[in-house]
Amino acid sequence: MFGGELKQPTQKTSASAPDSFMRNFQYQSHSADGIVNSILTSIEAVHFPKDDLTKFAKPKLTYFTKDRQTWVVTSDKGRSINGDDKIFLSQNVLIHQPQTAISPDTKIYTQHLTVYPGTDIAITNDPVLIKRPGTVIHGIGMTANLKTGQYKLLHQARGIYDPEA
Q1: Could you give phi then psi for residue 163, rounded to 5 degrees?
Q2: Is 44 a domain residue?
Q3: Could you report the per-residue pLDDT of 11-55, keeping only the tens digit for each?
Q4: Which are the contacts of 15, defined by CB distance < 8 A and separation ≥ 6?
Q5: Strand 36-48 to strand 135-145: parallel, antiparallel, or no bridges (unpaired)?
Q6: 3-state SS string for the chain
Q7: The pTM is what?
Q8: For residue 33, is it within any domain?
Q9: Local confidence band at 1 (pLDDT 50, 70, 90 cut-offs)
Q10: Is 63 among the domain residues?
Q11: Which of the four pLDDT bands, split at 50, 70 and 90, describes residue 2?
């Protein structure tokens, strides 16, 4: 389900030019029983038909775990290829799980992240910083399951635990 203001160019343009753009874009993914699985929003989305590429400004992906906890992924830039098979996020990527009754506030920072919406998996090979109350963890590379909330650092994981912080 798309929402936002759709604009299409009024002049004939080259094959590499955009064929449409939207402002205040919103796309929702639903399960078979109608429950919202994820939401993609962006202040602007521009589609290029030649490569089936969409570029996003300030994209925000919201995922809901099986027990309906929320994970919110934001970045400065994003792009998708072939519809929503892969979404590439870059510049100031933040994965945030707000505090709930069963989990503390968790923030994961990196510079690039590839999200696979069909499987709810996110991957980066870049440095990662994870912050939770009293805990700071650094590592290189990460895989995350945005549906279960599980994540794994791939290399050079090191952390500091300070229960007083």
Answers
A1: -65, -15
A2: yes
A3: 555 667 888 888 998 988 887 888 888 899 999 999 888 888 899
A4: 49, 50
A5: unpaired
A6: CEEEEEECCCCCCCCCCCCEEEEEEEEEEECCCCCEEEEEEEEEEEEECCCCEEEEECCEEEEECCCCCEEEEECCEEEEECCCCEEEEEEEEEEEECCCCCCCCEEEEEEEEEEECCCCEEEEEEEEEEEECCEEEEEEEEEEECCCCEEEEEEEEEEEECCCC
A7: 0.84
A8: yes
A9: very low
A10: yes
A11: very low
Assigned domain for 126 exists:
no
Average pLDDT value for residue range 84-103: 90
Q: Tell me how many domains the chain contains.
A: 1
**In terms of Cα–Cα distance, which of 115, 114, 157 is closest to 136?**
157
pLDDT for res 43: 95
CATH code at position 49: 2.60.450.10
What is the reported pLDDT for 141? 97
Angle (CA) 37 76 68, round 5°: 20
Q: What torsion do the CA atoms of 10, 2, 150, 70 make, to the nearest 10 degrees?
A: 120
Give the residue numbers spanning the domain of 67. 2-8+17-120
Residue with tokens 């505090």: 99
